[in-house]
Amino acid sequence: NRLVGLDAARGLALIGMMAAHVGLTTCGLTSVPGLLNQAHGRSAILFSVIAGFSLGIMSGRTTAHTGEQLVRTRLRLLVRSALLLVLGATLSTFATMVAIILGYYAAWLALALPFLGWRPRSLLVLAAVTAAVGPVIKIGLPVVLDSLGMTAQPFLMDGNIAVISFFITGLYPGALWMAYIYLGLGLSRLDWSRSANLWRLAGAGALCAGLGYAGGWAASAAVGDPDSYHLVSPADPAQCHLEDADPPEGPGAPSDAASSSWTAQFDEKGGGTEEDGGAIIDPGPPGLSQLATAAPHSETPFEALGSGGAAMTLIAVLQLVGRRARHVLAPLAAMGSMSLTVYCGHIVVIWATENPYDPTDNRFFAAMAGGFAVFAMAWLAIWARGPLEHLVHVISVRATRAVAPRPRQ
C-alpha cells in the first residue's frame, strides 16, 4: 500500500544528498558533475516536502484524524521528534562537516502538529505565505532585535538558543523551511489516485519551478549580479568564479553546497558559517538585495518557489512511473522506504572513511549510492522496515499505547 513514487522521490533525494556531500560537482549541464550539481539545495528541499507528505500519511492521508485519534497521532509524532533530535545530536558528534538536518526536522514536525487538521487549500496558502514572508523574517528579525538592544545570536551558545537556531539563525531556518513541510502536508490531503491529478501536479510544479528560477535570475540581474552559474550550458569555468576564492575543505561545506560554486554562495550570503571550519566572517548589514536570487541555499522566495516546484514535479512524475513500472523504481523506492537508516548510514560511512575531502571523481559517490541501494533491497526482502525505522516505530507506538485511556468497565 506504499506510494512507490513517493518512496522513489525520497530515495532520489538521498542520492542527491550523497552527491552533494561526497561527489564531484561543477557548474554547467553538459557533464555528469554538472548534472550532479543540480542536487545542491534541491535534494534537501525535496526531502523536506516529502517529510510533510509523510506527516499527512501518518495523520490520516486524505481524511485527517480527529478527536482522540488525532491526540494519539500528535503524541506519536512528538515521540518521533524527540528520537530524531537524539539521532541528530549523535550524528553531529561524528565531526563529518556535513550539516545534519535531523534536529531541524524534529523541531519542524513539532511545529506542524497544530496544522494536521487543516484543509489542503489552507495548508497550500500557508506554505506560500511562509515562503514569501519567512526569508524577510530571517533577515529582518536579527536587525529588529539589534535595534532594541537584544540579539538573535547570544555569546553563550548553550541550549537556550535552540529554538532561535532551529527557526531563525540556523542553516535550515524553519521560518522558511516550514513552507516545504506545509506544502507536503497539503499535497498529502489531495487525491492522487487518478493519473490526471498527477499530471496536473507535475504541470503546476513545472510552472512554479519556471517562475521561481526565472524570477530569481531576473531579480539578480536587476541588482547587477546574475546568478546563472548553476544553470549555464555548456559549462563555462569563468562563470563558476573559481579564480576568486578557494572552496572550504570538507564534504558538503557549507551544508551541502557545491565546492565549485562556493564563491558565488559566499558572495550571496556575505560570509562563512561554522561549517567552514569555524571561520566566522562579518557579513555586514543585511539588505533585501539578498533575496534577489534563486541560487541553492540562498533561502529566498525565488528558491522556495523554484525548488518547491521542482519537488512537486519529481514526486508526480515518479508516482506516474511507479504505477506502470514499479520494478524500474525498485532501488530508489527501497532506499526511500528506509530513509532514516540510509541517511544516518551515509554519515557514518563519511566518518569511517575519514571525510573524503576534495573528490577528483565520482567513484566514491557511486559506490556509496549503489551500496546503499543494494543494502536496502536486500534488507527489505526479509524485513518490512529498515532497522532505525523499526526502532522509531516500536518506541513511538508503545509510548502511545502507554498513555492510551483504558476502556470503561
What does this structure look like?
With 409 residues, this protein is mainly alpha-helical. It is built from 15 helices and no strands. Helix 1 packs across helix 12, helix 1 runs parallel beside helix 13 (339-352) and helix 4 (67-92) packs antiparallel against helix 5 (102-112). The chain is globular, with a radius of gyration of 21 Å.
Structure summarized in a few sentences:
The chain is mainly α and 409 residues long. The protein has helices spanning 4-22, 32-36, 42-58, 67-92, 102-112, 120-147, 162-169, 174-188, 195-222, 262-269, 301-324, 330-337, 339-352, 363-380, 387-402. α1 (4-22) runs antiparallel to α3 and α6 runs antiparallel to α8.
- Unreliable stretches (pLDDT < 50, length at least 5) are 241-285
Specify the structural class. mainly alpha
Order of helices and strands: HHHHHHHHHHHHHHH
Mean pLDDT: 84
Secondary structure: elements and pairs:
Elements: H1 4-22, H2 32-36, H3 42-58, H4 67-92, H5 102-112, H6 120-147, H7 162-169, H8 174-188, H9 195-222, H10 262-269, H11 301-324, H12 330-337, H13 339-352, H14 363-380, H15 387-402
Descriptors:
mainly alpha; 60% helix
